[in-house]
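Action item from last week, closing it out:
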Amino acid sequence: MFKRFCLMSVLSVQVATAGAAESPLAPQAISSSEAPAAIGPYSQAILANGTLYVSGQLALDPKTGQLASQDIRAQTRQTLANLSAVLAAAGMTLADAVQVQVFLADLEDFAAMNEIYASAFKAPFPARFTVQVARLPRDARIEIGLIAVKRQPSR
């Protein structure tokens, strides 16, 4: 009986694995021309199994490729606008965010960042962490990444 169970388990795994390659939920790159192009070998976002993983966004103006400003409030607004553009390309909004990662070049900017952040997100707020890092690309003051899951319409 044990041999039969093992053989059936192996066959089940092979069948499940064979179907996975053809799954409509296979990872898909998501991008938006309304957000800055990736500045390295990565995607703006990946949609996998209904979850959107958005790469960290800087406060780059998508038209010029330059930092929007040196002001943390302006950089936070631009970063959130860039995230919103990538989310929109996947048919989502900031309301679909379930987890947010905030990287600051200086934790002294936390209160100002948090003020702008609070105006962009509504309850229930996504889980979040904020850390200070030694340096960010392009010497930006902030980088934000997030994970989103499309909310189901209320019934």
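Closing note: Confidence is low (pLDDT under 50) at residues 1-22.
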